[in-house]
Amino acid sequence: MASTIYLVLLFLFFCMVAEAQDVEFLFNGFNGSEANLTLDKVSIIKPSGLLRLTNKTQNAVGHAFYSEKVQMLNRSSSSSPNASSFSTAFVFQIISPSKGEGGFGFAFTLSPSDRLPGAEAGHYLGLFNSTNDGWSSNYIFAVEFDTVNGFNESTDSVGNHVGININSVDSKAGKPASYIDDVDRLGSFEELVLESGQPIQAWVEYNGVTKCINVTIAPMDHGKPIQPLISFPQDLSTYVREDMYVGFSASTGNKASSHYILGWSFSTKGEAPPLNLSRLPIALQEKNSSSFRPSVIVIIASLCGVTTLLFVILFFLTVYKIKWRQSEALEDWELECPHRFRYQDLYTATKGFKKSEIIGVGGFGAVYKGRLPTNGNEVAVKKINNNSIQGLREFTAEIESLGRLRHKNLVNLQGWCKKNNDLLLVYDFIPNGSLAGLLFSRINNFVLSWEQRFNIVKGVAAGLLYLHEEWEQVVIHRDVKSGNVLIDAEMNGRLGDFGLARLYDHGTMSHTTNIVGTIGYLAPELTRTGQSSTSSDVYAYGILLLEVACGRKPVETSNFILIDSVIEYHQMGRIIDAADPKLNSAFVVKEMELVLGLGLLCSHRKPKARPTMRQVTRYLNWEDKLPVIDDLGSPDSLRGSTKFMEVSVSSNTITGSYPSSSIGYMTSSSMDAGR
Ligand SMILES: *[C@@H]1O[C@H](CO)[C@@H](O)[C@H](O)[C@H]1NC(C)=O
Ligand SMILES: *[C@@H]1O[C@H](CO)[C@@H](O)[C@H](O)[C@H]1NC(C)=O
Ligand SMILES: *[C@@H]1O[C@H](CO)[C@@H](O)[C@H](O)[C@H]1NC(C)=O
Ligand SMILES: *[C@@H]1O[C@H](CO)[C@@H](O)[C@H](O)[C@H]1NC(C)=O
Ligand SMILES: *[C@@H]1O[C@H](CO)[C@@H](O)[C@H](O)[C@H]1NC(C)=O
Ligand SMILES: *[C@@H]1O[C@H](CO)[C@@H](O)[C@H](O)[C@H]1NC(C)=O
Ligand SMILES: *[C@@H]1O[C@H](CO)[C@@H](O)[C@H](O)[C@H]1NC(C)=O
Ligand SMILES: *[C@@H]1O[C@H](CO)[C@@H](O)[C@H](O)[C@H]1NC(C)=O
Ligand SMILES: *[C@@H]1O[C@H](CO)[C@@H](O)[C@H](O)[C@H]1NC(C)=O
Q1: The domain spanning residue 626 has which CATH number?
Q2: Which of 40, 49, 101, 646 is the residue whose CA sits 20 to 30 A from 60?
Q3: Which residue, 29, 473, 548, 84, is CA-closest to 264?
Q4: Which residues are designated catalytic?
Q5: pLDDT band for position 628 (50/70/90)?
Q6: Cβ neighbour number for residue 113 with a 10 Å cutoff
């Protein structure tokens, strides 16, 4: 009896020991977590819940370690202990100064000490110093996220990179920061600029049995790519001590960035618990900070130089006008505008433009979700910082006219507000995110059904017809794409961001508007003449039809152009084979044939061959029969048009930083985040 009790106690004791070995924690933001972390040097937890490892002070070091040690050696058999498996996930933001480049970087770290005394800043990342760099007695394992050319040019030469460092600043393995966008099935590596300021999620996993370290990164809203960026076979058993601290170390040098950790989870008993991304605090970039690379900045700067003179004149005119009117808060023409919102209301609706209300961030500002205090309606408020739209009367007239557009298949612009340099646009809040988000969703294997897809493309056609023909003026959308179609609660498609391109015509940025649009949706004549027309909108709508039917993006790699592929199926007489395999043949063949055929007709390379939106609506309602489609061009002639695309890709990369295209980005991302 006694021995049984003894055995039970012994068993319990071993269970407890085994339990104690495992560590698992999750921080969705670091609010109230001061006690769980050991912060050292310049690291702080901000009131917003952000863990800031360094700010932009030069030659600074910041450490943050989980305050309890983690048992890293598995001594289940005494002879040669193995390093335990671990898995960690975290989201970080590196915000570089608005002028020039930032530096240096930060590292996820396993270390025997939570202070690392004597460690130096700069490329030593607060982990080593010139004396002990490379010593095996350091027992430091680090995964570095480094934005500056390394210390040793030959081994660490790429600035924007991720590397695995053991006891030394020289990386054992490293790769330029990138991820495989496996939403595109052909999966190519997409570059990810670490110091762009966007939130990036990283996963570091070590398997103690297969002895392999995997490091994966992706933009925060992307989900985890299946293929890791670095998969490096390395037995860590001789490089870790029995008890280690886990955490982060960051440093700045002559160049300095702010390094933030938004959320962090860690586990030694399997996969790290997933972060709840919607609960993470987000660090906002300072006003006017630029996230673009120097070459782009140079181009933008030179383009802007041309307009600087205009700005100066405009500025003095505005100052003069304000002085003259002195006490008047509103200019009288502004008072005549029925869609003008009171700044105070929008301020209240978005809780003072609070960071937690942000549902999307783009290059030019953020989109906030808000509830209007006046009527309790939910709205999406797009906040655009742009000096170039100051005091332009026609600009306001244009917004007023867009505000009068009303259709159930449009994301209605409810109104606007201008305060200093900020333009606030108030839209209906659309709950289900963008069509692109749903089509290429990776969440729970969600597949949009054919019935829903057919209904959505019909809705978009109705919205576009309204813009083209049914309103008092012809409105050319110029950026029809799946990312600009939002899906409402009844699963109807609603076209967003219409008319914004035209708004910019009234601004001083008009020299850019001839390249408004998105690669893959640009009609061939557009890339030659730059002249948008209803017919180029029809072209883009045709591409959208193909996208919806095939479940693939218009351009996936330089080798896969969706329309070329559908034309090839069409010419082989097997157009139905182009249907999205994810639908599993669950579609009405006649409807699928109609959508694919109509897609080809709308995206016909000759503008004259394309139908009008009214005609498109008739086809979709079976009122007219689709004509036989021919003269699509041979695959060889198509290659030519592909080349053309490549030329325009580069021009779009440049203009991608201009307001018109970035606004589109904001809607889609905002709605994705809102989902
Ligand atoms: C943080 O510390 C508190 C108090 O010691 C504890 O209750 C809590 O579980 C810890 N949180 C994490 C994520 O470790
Ligand atoms: C953290 O707490 C502060 C105030 O205590 C609050 O303003 C902020 O929204 C909180 N952040 C998160 C992410 O909960
Ligand atoms: C960084 O933070 C320290 C203390 O928190 C402050 O004294 C310093 O001015 C900050 N530096 C910058 C560049 O913001
Ligand atoms: C320790 O090793 C044993 C046997 O190899 C294994 O069953 C156990 O899961 C390991 N524990 C940890 C925490 O890795
Ligand atoms: C380097 O770091 C070690 C241990 O952290 C410390 O003992 C040593 O004094 C440091 N050397 C210098 C030159 O700072
Ligand atoms: C850089 O790394 C290479 C290869 O590891 C080594 O031969 C060289 O001595 C290193 N240079 C410096 C300056 O440390
Ligand atoms: C690392 O990645 C490889 C290749 O994708 C995969 O086979 C392996 O299971 C991964 N290991 C861990 C620890 O996740
Ligand atoms: C250490 O790993 C090796 C190879 O994976 C395995 O054969 C051995 O049993 C492990 N030892 C312990 C103590 O878990
Ligand atoms: C994430 O947090 C939000 C807000 O706190 C909550 O509504 C949601 O259920 C959470 N999601 C998960 C997966 O825990």
Answers
A1: 1.10.510.10
A2: 49
A3: 29
A4: 479
A5: confident
A6: 15
Q: Which residues contact 44 (CB under 8 A, 6 or more apart)?
A: 51, 52
Residue type, 20: A
User: Do 420 and 451 belong together in one domain?
Assistant: no
**Residue 611 class from Cβ within 10 Å (0-12 exposed, 13-18 middle, 19+ buried)?**
buried
pLDDT digits (tens, 9 = 90+) for 123-140: 899 999 999 999 999 999
Q: Is 481 annotated as a binding residue?
A: no
The boundaries of the domain holding residue 362 are 335-428
CA of 277 to the centre of ligand 9 (A): 8
**Predicted confidence band at 222 (pLDDT cuts at 50, 70, 90)?**
confident
pLDDT of residue 446: 84
CB 212 within 8 A of CB 228: no
Nearest Cα to Cα of residue 108 among 245, 206, 215, 249: 249
User: Is the shortest distance between the CB of 357 and ligand 2 below 6 Å?
Assistant: no
Strands in 347-391 per DSSP E: 358-362, 365-371, 378-385
Q: What is the pLDDT of residues 405-420, one digit of tens each?
A: 889 999 888 888 877 7
Our mutation pick for probing the ligand 8 site, out of 74, 75, 82, 211, counting the most ligand atoms within 8 A of Cβ, is 82
**Pair (266, 341) in one structural domain:** no
Give the residue from 230, 246, 277 where a domain finishes.
277
Contact between residue 382 and residue 367 where contact means Cβ atoms under 8 Å apart: yes
Of all residues in the chain, the percent with pLDDT exceeding 90 is 41
Tokens of 517: 């649009």
Q: How far apart are the first and last CA of the chain?
A: 60
Residue 363 shares a structural domain with residue 475: no
Same domain, 218 and 76: yes
Q: What is the 3-state secondary structure (H, E, C) of 631-666?
A: CCCCHHHHHHHHHHHHHHHHHHHHHCCCHHHHHHHH
Report whether 89 contacts 202 (CB < 8 A): yes
